[in-house]
Write a structure and sequence with these properties.
Length: about 700
């Protein structure tokens, strides 16, 4: 085997020129560039031939069939015509991920019949990873089920020696060929990395109808009967039922599972039992919508809302539960420490994770995670420094919590970037459930020490992290591009400065108020944090539009207008809820209303410019956003120093509010001007949209 062999890529195509262009581009963009592409135009009449003649790359050639010979014969013709030692295939409606050839070549071993990989099944809106575990595939495995995917990397001569694809089969042609290769040359090797995307667009005409597949199963079994075991035949019998859509009884399921493929068989049985839900699931995967109004609301509104809740919902649940069951005094330190901890996490975790939302750094999760260790190390040093200064009171629990939240937020950004809200919602709900129940259990055990809230949140966040790791998004980390530390620093300044005005209140309250009142302030801020979930969910859904290269100024203003309306409604409702909550906890109504009103005003002023700032950051204007938020940070630090040093009487503390608000308003006005100067103005700007 040559050290850097040339790999032949054969692509059969017919009347799908736009998809073909995408497929060819995915090969041309490979990290491994020593390849040849041979395209067989199987009698196209849609401009495919014109496209092929326009390709100006010596590595790309084509064969033109004036009369269609069907896909299998087209593949065989290409394999025979290629002169490379290794070959692999690509269907015209699928695409290679950029590192496919490189990764397959790394694991290729001539002692195996061939090498293959996992892949990503693209339903249209949602995707699913398949065969994401590395495995040596024996002949028995191959006869059970096609576990090799529909494309492999193999020596060209081996394909020729076994006769290539069987054109007589109406379906399962790839499965049949892989079995013949394994029967002749031994087991195959599959890497668990998902290296290409298979399109499942139902609007396209697929080769294999149900009728064709059922006929192909009969022919396949007849052809390979001499080498099929009882296990293989039983599994094919179940496969037939699956393709035909026949229901499987509990007894049949129990009998069949003794022959393996347990999860596949259980899924099929559940699909048949829950036919309507299965149909809704497929509908959602293909279109992102469900015709049933309640399920549509649940999947498109409630699940993203729960998923993007972040620590806000769990924090208010934990603080409330601790105050009721463990006492307010025991939550004062946690309320202050947690806000400081989240500020540090925002600076040194979210500043890295944010780049996963940008088009240039999509699929860079592994590379970004490794680089973020620098930020985590700095965050730990800062935490030690704040502890020595007395700003953070409990290092024993905040240190592990910082590490857990660092990786949790990276995975959280990955999920948001992939619109994988369901698992994220599951994780957030589990964290909130633990935060609700654990204080009740601790109170029953008469454990009321100040460390209890810390312990609960460490356990809850760790379980949330484990859920995200268990259902991690695989096969999307092929991009090794990472941002410069300067860009990360700018994002850190941008995100941390804008929320510092909120996070300083619990610390300031702890310094000048008694422990109970400090807990109430932290609880009130947590209530308003929950109020931000709905607008932030709306903003998260708008991120692909905001980050698009084609976005117009009017688009940004329209999104901002909708976001602002939601902010105002959410904050007004939260004002009522937070005030009532504090009054319920025996806080005088005047004080309860004052605290809630002050926090509401700050929230409105800070959040109004969120869409502008996010848009600028997504369009590589991190430096501009950092400068704008730095202005707010300076104002906030000034206010915080006055509070901590007790330079102003408590009854005049409200006079500091305008300083913070004016800083936020000035930032938002300047951000709006940068938006106008940075993006395309498609029409006269309507002040009402601003």
């Amino acid at each position: 085997m040559l050290e850097s062999p040339c790999i032949g890529v054969y692509i059969p195509t017919k009347n799908r020129v736009e998809l073909l262009k995408r497929a060819v581009d995915s090969v041309l963009e490979q990290t491994y560039q020593n390849f040849k592409i041979l395209i067989v135009d199987d009698g196209s009449s849609d401009g495919t031939f014109e496209y092929l003649t326009s390709i100006d790359d010596p590595r790309v050639s084509y064969i033109r069939n004036e009369i269609s010979e069907k896909a299998c014969r087209a593949r065989n013709k290409a394999i025979a015509a290629l002169d490379t030692e290794l070959v692999t295939g690509l269907d015209d409606d699928d695409i290679f991920l950029p590192n496919r050839l490189e990764e397959l070549l790394k694991v290729y071993d001539p002692n195996y019949a061939f090498a293959c990989s996992g892949y990503i099944w693209d339903y249209g809106v949602q995707t699913k990873s398949l065969f994401s575990k590395s495995k040596v595939i024996s002949l028995s495995d191959a006869l059970d089920l096609n576990q090799c995917s529909n494309q492999i990397l193999v020596e060209r001569q081996r394909l020729l020696d076994v006769g290539g694809f069987d054109a007589k089969l109406p379906a399962l042609q790839d499965h049949d060929l892989w079995v013949r290769l394994i029967a002749k040359y031994g087991s195959a090797y599959r890497t668990g990395k998902e290296l290409y995307i298979v399109n499942d667009d139902q609007e396209l005409e697929r080769i294999s109808s149900v009728k064709n597949k059922l006929q192909a199963i009969d022919l396949f079994e007849k052809k390979h009967r001499p080498i099929m075991s009882t296990r293989n035949r039983e599994n094919f019998a179940f496969y037939r039922k699956k393709i035909a859509g026949e229901k499987v009884s509990l007894l049949e399921l129990f009998h069949s599972t003794q022959y393996g493929l347990f999860s596949l068989k259980v899924r099929h049985a559940l699909t048949q039992k829950l036919e309507r839900l299965a149909r809704y699931r497929l509908e959602y995967l293909h279109t992102g919508k469900v015709s049933h109004p309640i399920i549509h609301w649940f999947m498109n509104y409630l699940v993203p809302l729960l998923a993007t809740g972040g620590p806000g919902a769990s924090r208010v649940i934990l603080l409330s539960s601790c105050i009721f069951f463990l006492g307010a005094t025991n939550t004062a330190s946690f309320g202050s420490d947690f806000f400081i901890l989240m500020l540090i996490n925002t600076m040194f975790s979210q500043s890295f994770g944010f780049f996963l939302l940008k088009q240039d750094y999509a699929n860079s999760f592994s590379a970004l995670s490794k680089k973020s260790i620098i930020g985590l190390f700095v965050a730990i040093l800062l935490l030690f420094s704040l502890n020595s200064l007395g700003v953070v009171s409990n290092l024993t629990y905040t240190l592990p919590l910082l590490v857990i939240l660092h990786f949790y937020y990276l995975l959280r950004f990955q999920r948001i970037a992939e619109s994988g809200f369901f698992v994220l919602a599951l994780s957030e709900c589990m964290i909130s459930l633990i935060c609700l129940i654990a204080p009740i259990i601790l109170s029953q055990m008469h454990i009321t020490q100040v460390n209890a809230p810390y312990l609960v949140y460490v356990i809850a966040s760790l379980i949330g992290l484990l859920i995200l790791l268990l259902f991690s998004v695989k096969g999307r980390s092929f991009n090794k591009k990472t941002p410069s530390l300067k860009k990360v620093f700018n994002i850190a300044i941008s995100t941390s400065a804008s929320i510092f005005a909120l996070f300083c209140f619990p610390y300031g309250a702890k310094e000048i108020l008694d422990a109970d009142m400090a807990s109430y302030v932290a609880l009130c801020i947590s209530c308003f944090s929950i109020a931000m979930l709905i607008p932030r969910t709306q903003a998260n859904k708008s991120l692909p539009v905001l980050g698009s290269d084609d976005i117009l100024v009017s688009d940004v203003f329209t999104i901002n207008q909708k976001y602002t309306k939601i902010i105002l409604v959410s904050c007004f409702i939260s004002l009522i809820v937070a005030s009532s909550y504090l009054i319920l906890l025996k806080v005088p109504w005047q004080l309860a209303l004052s605290i809630s009103s002050i926090i509401m005003v700050i929230f409105i002023c800070s959040q109004y410019g969120f869409i502008y700032l996010t848009t600028l950051s997504l369009h590589d204007k991190e430096g501009v956003v950092a400068k704008l938020n730095l202005m707010v940070l300076v104002a906030t630090l000034s206010v915080l120093s006055v509070v901590v040093m007790k330079s102003i009487a408590l009854e005049f503390m409200y006079l500091l509010l305008p300083v913070i608000c004016i800083a936020f308003i000035a930032r938002n006005v300047r951000a709006k001007k940068h938006i106008v100067n940075s993006l395309v103005v498609d029409k006269p700007i309507d002040d009402k949209l601003i």
